[in-house]
């Protein structure tokens, strides 16, 4: 109670789990949209017979690299689309069942499973997008098998940064999902 004798907001105000889910899902869909743009940028770089920046013709990527680029881009797009659609479906589910007790086991399992599927869709989308970007590097800079130091630097930096990002994202996201499914309010 404050000085006037009325109940004030406590610092430990109970968080509305629906609002937390909705904000997290909005962020996930926004990130997936950015990655989807990267997919289409990568697809625009798959030209047959394109020469790399290396001066040696043996360093130019063969058509198989361009084909693999397209396949990885399509797969990553599919995972980002899966993740976004599941996230949007979960938002609708949260709004429809807002009045029901969110602590029921059935609703927790449904919400946790959908959030898990959405998160793993983004994770696999990132993995395939990274693999496609390595192919973009090979097309533009030179094949890794050719020993191009610039291709190794670019691909190595990309892989290291993505692994670091996923190394942070995956455990924290899995913990949050586990906590949301098992926590009692």
Provide a concise account of the structure shown.
It comes from Populus trichocarpa (Western balsam poplar). This protein has helices spanning 17-44, 63-96, 105-140, 149-182.
Care to describe what's here?
The chain crosses the membrane at residues 28-49, 69-88, 109-134, 154-179. This is PGG domain-containing protein. It comes from Populus trichocarpa (Western balsam poplar). The chain is mainly α. The protein has one domain (14-47, 56-182). The protein is built from four helices and no strands. It has helices at 17-44, 63-96, 105-140, 149-182. The protein is elongated, with a radius of gyration of 22 Å. Mean pLDDT is 78; it is low at 1-14.
Total number of strands: 0
Give the structural class.
mainly alpha
N to C succession of SSEs: HHHH
Q: Termini distance? A: 23 Å
- What is the percentage of strand-forming residues? under 5%
Q: Tell me the count of domains.
A: 1
Please mark out the parts with pLDDT under 50 across 5 or more consecutive residues, or reply none.
1-14
User: What is the helix content?
Assistant: over 70%
Largest sheet features: none
The number of helical segments is 4
Main traits of this protein?
transmembrane helix; mainly alpha; 185 residues; 4 helices; PGG domain-containing protein; transmembrane; membrane; disordered N terminus
Q: Helices and strands in order, then pairings?
A:
Elements: H1 17-44, H2 63-96, H3 105-140, H4 149-182
């Amino acid at each position: 109670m404050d000085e006037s004798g009325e109940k004030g907001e406590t610092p430990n105000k109970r968080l509305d789990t629906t609002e937390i889910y909705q904000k997290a899902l909005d962020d996930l869909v926004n990130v997936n949209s950015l990655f989807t743009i990267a997919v289409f940028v990568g697809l625009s770089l798959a030209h047959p017979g394109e020469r790399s920046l290396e001066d040696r013709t043996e360093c130019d990527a063969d058509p198989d690299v361009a084909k693999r680029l397209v396949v990885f881009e399509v797969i990553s797009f599919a995972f980002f689309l899966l993740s976004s659609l599941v996230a949007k479906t979960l938002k609708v589910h949260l709004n429809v069942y807002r009045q029901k007790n969110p602590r029921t086991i059935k609703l927790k399992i449904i919400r946790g499973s959908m959030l898990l599927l959405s998160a793993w869709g983004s994770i696999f989308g990132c993995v395939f997008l990274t693999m496609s970007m390595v192919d973009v590097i090979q097309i533009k800079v030179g094949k890794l098998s050719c020993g191009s130091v610039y291709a190794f630097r670019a691909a190595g930096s990309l892989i290291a940064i993505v692994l670091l990002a996923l190394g942070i994202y995956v455990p924290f996201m899995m913990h949050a999902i586990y906590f949301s499914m098992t926590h009692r309010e």
